[in-house]
Design a protein that fits this description.
Number of strands: 11
Structural class: alpha/beta
Strand content: 15-25%
Largest sheet: 6 strands, mixed
CATH topology of the largest domain: Rossmann fold
Radius of gyration: 19 Å
Shape: globular
Distance between the termini: 46 Å
CATH architecture of the largest domain: 3-Layer(aba) Sandwich
Order of helices and strands: EHEHEHEEHHHHHEEHEEHEEHH
CATH class of the largest domain: Alpha Beta
Number of helices: 12
């Protein structure tokens, strides 16, 4: 069933996406419909939209391999009279920017997409400014603000994401639930320290330290884990979250985006997602053996070894 709503914003599932949704509610309409998606799923998300007056897409890069499918859905939605705006701060394939002939495309080099939304549409709103600062702190992985890591835990389910968006949009940044997330961060910190000890670390051909961490089945703050490994001298961190997906984190010495693009991924040069296709053998082995590393992840490890 397709969704018909006056105003719809599709945002990423991370803290930047949540902050973007909160600012959008303050700027455009407190009752706008919020949907969550990502680079890998944006085409499917767009298929769920029927008609609307305004459609915003924020903090979601367009994967080059999905351009045709996304363009088709954009044209369909636009034909209903919908105005479409796409705001992002990730690096895009140059050819994909031609989507701008159909929509208002805003791409800027910025710590977060939420801060672009703030500067463009809410620069006189102090609450939106604070929301953007939270997004900047989280998406740059500085995590210097007291509650940033707690908020990140609050982005693990759509229910909590929507609650955070509602809180932030009303200028509320602390309650009992945030306090519980804050305590959870303390517990996860202890677990992360143990996980780090089990990380597989090796040197690449250019003598860069690479760490591989298998987080399948574990709910931990990956960006915090990566930051701690980098503080120990690791240059590149590859975290495997599921059999089909993972994230690369870097210290800036290698453009990881070039590597991620080979694995239907995207994001930033120092933090980007990767996706793997599972063959029949991998599908069987991952069900039988919990520690089985899929072929796509093994291939990525070889590519990292060659960096």
């Amino acid at each position: 069933m397709q969704i018909n709503s006056r105003k719809i914003f599709i945002v990423h599932t991370d803290l930047d996406g949540v902050c973007s949704g909160a600012i959008a509610k303050r700027v455009f309409d407190n009752y706008l419909k919020i949907m969550f998606s990502g680079p890998r799923t944006i085409a499917d998300t767009l298929k769920k939209i029927g008609s609307c007056s305004v459609l915003g897409i924020v903090d979601i890069a367009l994967n080059h391999s999905d351009y045709i499918d996304v363009e088709r859905e954009i044209l369909r939605i636009k034909s209903s009279g919908c105005q479409i705006i796409w705001i992002d701060h990730h690096e895009w394939h140059e050819a994909d920017k031609q989507i701008s002939q159909h929509i208002n495309l805003i791409l800027e080099n910025s710590p977060s997409a939420a801060s672009i939304l703030y500067r463009r549409f809410a620069k006189d709103d102090e609450i939106s400014k604070k929301i953007a600062e939270i997004a900047d702190d989280g998406d740059s992985n500085k995590n210097e603000l007291e509650l940033t890591l707690a908020y990140k835990i609050g982005t693990r389910s759509n229910k909590d994401r929507l609650e955070l968006i509602d809180m932030f949009s009303r200028g509320i940044f602390y309650n009992e639930k945030v306090e519980a997330w804050k305590k959870q961060v303390e517990e996860e910190n202890k677990i992360i320290d143990m996980v780090i000890k089990k990380a597989k670390i090796f040197n690449s051909e250019s003598d860069k330290k690479v760490a591989f961490v298998d987080l399948r089945g574990k709910k931990l703050i990956g960006s915090l884990l990566a930051k701690k490994l980098q503080q120990l001298g690791v240059n590149i961190v590859f975290i495997l979250y599921t059999e089909r997906s993972g994230v690369l984190y870097g210290d800036g010495k290698v453009n990881l985006l070039k590597i991620a693009s080979k694995y239907n991924g995207g994001g930033h040069q120092n933090a980007c997602g990767v996706n793997f296709k599972l063959g029949l053998l991998d599908r069987i082995l991952t069900k039988i053996l919990k520690k089985h590393i899929p072929a796509g992840a093994k291939k990525l490890l070889k590519d990292l070894k060659r960096t």
